[in-house]
Amino acid sequence: MTQSTTRHDWTLDEIRALFETSFNDLIFQAHSIHRNHHNPNEVQISSLLSIKTGACAEDCGYCSQSAHHKTELERERLLPLEEVIAKAETAKSNGSSRFCMGAAWRNPTDKNLEKVIEMIQAVKGLGMETCVTLGMLTESQSQRLKDAGLDYYNHNLDTSPEFYGNVITTRTFQDRLDTLSHIRDAGINICSGGILGMGETSTDRASMLQQLANLDPHPESVPINMLVQIEGTPLHGAEKIDPLEFVKSIAVARILMPASQVRLSAGRHEMSDEMQALCFFAGANSIFYGEKLLTTENCETNDDLALFSRLGIQPTATEQTEFKASACHS
Ligand code: SAM
Ligand code: DTB
Ligand code: SF4
């Protein structure tokens, strides 16, 4: 049995050494740790909805929603409550256990926060776990969300502290850490990860994972996105990441954060079934499910069901959701 202790003191050299381990040894180690902490044949599924789209004040170089970039995206105001409930009901009936609502804000105003809180309460009322991602939060806003019953807050570190300034200039890495600390202090589960394939080096990937792994406690959920290249954004045309280096990054995330949910997030659309299968073997145990991510396409749901069936994977059952197992194991 592979021993894994939960650590928060990883050095960059130790993590770089993991990346330098031969592929078979690394994914064997990651898979062994994965098995000790999770059912290897279960994958949790979350669904996403953009509740406020575009015209964001931040200049994140990867994002379709930044007002700083000229993309094709049509902006949309905060969605009405009824529309959000209808989308959550559909997601639940498709088997999602968690509903994640994203807003393109640098930070929410207190007035907007109250509207989002109505959405959180309504989605919780359907028996789903809730997650929101609204940008930077103050301590009191984090507490307000906790009081409203929010389960998870998504706030990604996105990349290494060293590479951060190449991607975003309107906020700092420390701003991100500060919001994470407010969320943690309020007692909300943290969902935090990053994006690979933005032109960062392997050391940057190790450094980003070091930052996540040295949060104490670890983020409960760690989304690893592969950049979805969007025309009109500064990162359109960035050098793509080698698929096997992506799989290795999932493996390293699993080794560093043994009990966390590691989510194979944006970019699955461009991954082969075989690459996804390797990611699940290396320790990914969560996906975004549904036709759309926030503003871009996700995998076809039928393709996901077929892949799950071929791999003998079941969506993680929760008390609230009952997956259509017949659809999955046809
Ligand atoms: N505005 C909020 C924020 O930045 O925290 C929430 C929304 S933002 C779209 C959520 C996360 O999605 C980002 O932090 C980033 O990691 C990821 N993301 C955004 N655009 C992406 C893209 N084109 N490809 C991959 N991941 C992306
Ligand atoms: C995360 O890490 N990935 C999701 C979620 N958290 C909010 C968002 C992915 C966005 C991909 C690009 C888009 O659809 O706009
Ligand atoms: Fe705004 Fe979030 Fe997009 Fe950055 S990632 S531009 S903060 S919506």
Q: Give the beta-strand count.
A: 10
Bound molecules: S-adenosylmethionine, 6-(5-methyl-2-OXO-imidazolidin-4-yl)-hexanoic acid, iron/sulfur cluster
Structural class: alpha/beta
Rounded to an integer in angstroms, the radius of gyration calculated over CA atoms is 19 Å
Give a quick account of the main beta sheet: strands, pairing sense, barrel closure: 10 strands, parallel
Number of helices: 12
* Unreliable residue stretches: 319-330
The dominant shape is: globular
Beta percentage is 5-15%
Mean pLDDT across residues: 92
What percentage of residues falls in helices of 4 or more residues? 25-40%
Taking the alpha carbons of the first and last residues, their distance comes to: 34 Å
Topology order in helix (H) and strand (E) letters: HHEHEHEHEHHEEHEHEHEHEH
Question: Which key features would you list for this structure?
Answer:
binds S-adenosylmethionine; single chain; 330 residues; globular; binds iron/sulfur cluster; ten-stranded parallel beta sheet; alpha/beta; binds 6-(5-methyl-2-OXO-imidazolidin-4-yl)-hexanoic acid
Explain what you see.
This protein is α/β, with parallel strands linked by helices and 330 residues long. It is 40% helix and 14% strand. The protein is built from twelve helices and ten strands. Strands 1, 2, 3, 4, 5, 6, 7, 8, 9 and 10 form a ten-stranded parallel beta sheet that branches. The protein starts with 11 loop residues before the first helix and ends with a helix. The model is unreliable at 319-330 (pLDDT under 50). The structure holds S-adenosylmethionine, 6-(5-methyl-2-OXO-imidazolidin-4-yl)-hexanoic acid and iron/sulfur cluster.
